[in-house]
Amino acid sequence: MRAIKTVLLLCLVILASCSMPGIGSEEGEGSIAVTLTDGIARTLLPPIDMIPASFDITGTGPGGKTFSRSTTGTSLTISKLVFGTWNVTVSAKNASGTVIGQGTGTATVVTGQQTTLAITVTPISGTGTLDLGVTWTAADVPAPSIDAQLLPSSGSPIPLAFTLAAGSAGCLKTGIASGYYTLTLKLLDNGVLVMGAVEVVRIVTGQATSGTFDFTQVNKGTGTLIVTITPANADPITVTISGQSATLSAGSSMTVTSSVPAAVGNVTYVWYLNGEPKATGSSASPSFILGDTLSAGFYRLDVTAFTVDGLRAGAATCSFTVL
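The structure assignment produced for this chain is given below.
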């Protein structure tokens, strides 16, 4: 009988013996030994155990021959295989019996030779879901927005759209190809970065990876305020009189004009002669005419000026003698 031994290592090693003349069957027989290895990274992960706990190994060989074995170890020998080409599939299961990875390989069992078949078990291809949440103190971020994306090892970034609420935001993204991504997430206040995070995310076929980011402590946004001051202290108005003379002949007249600084604006003038009101004028008509009816004597002429709103005022005076 032809004795053939094959070893699969996650890796598959095939051992084949020489046929003995005059001894054996029409079909050669051999064996396959399977050795399995695993390398799993840990980061933001879906709620599925991705640690292989057992392996189902199936093979299809010449003439429709098949085998099916299971193992919890890292190697397995499958005996009494006919020599020829064998297609081998390895399915990895976690402790719950869920298939989490698969790999295939082809080995040729040859009499008198040892063949090694390396099979790598990788996660099942497909798409998964990413479910993210962000929280912060609402009073600290009055105009919030989220800028986030997934960065694959190659290819274009995948934008993540968040729905905002008071002090929180959420994102549910489906149809993401399985694999590892870099997640960049920024919390903005009126477009200004106040906090952010970067995490590695693993997407697994048919699974939802979730994570929550608590941004209780943020760098509160600051702004610039330009203050323009307009003094309004109700300072007294400076009033001046022009056109007056110290003496006036009886039967003569005199025109006296009052004025205020241009910045004061419109004012109302009231003229008084020896304490008696005589005339009222405005910025448009600031003059007062002393008629020719004044009798000889001493006179004091006063004028007051009030702004339209009445918040500011001032006065001026002059004296003259009628001869």
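Interim note for the steering committee: The longest strand covers residues 192-203. The chain has three domains: 4-123, 127-215, 240-322.
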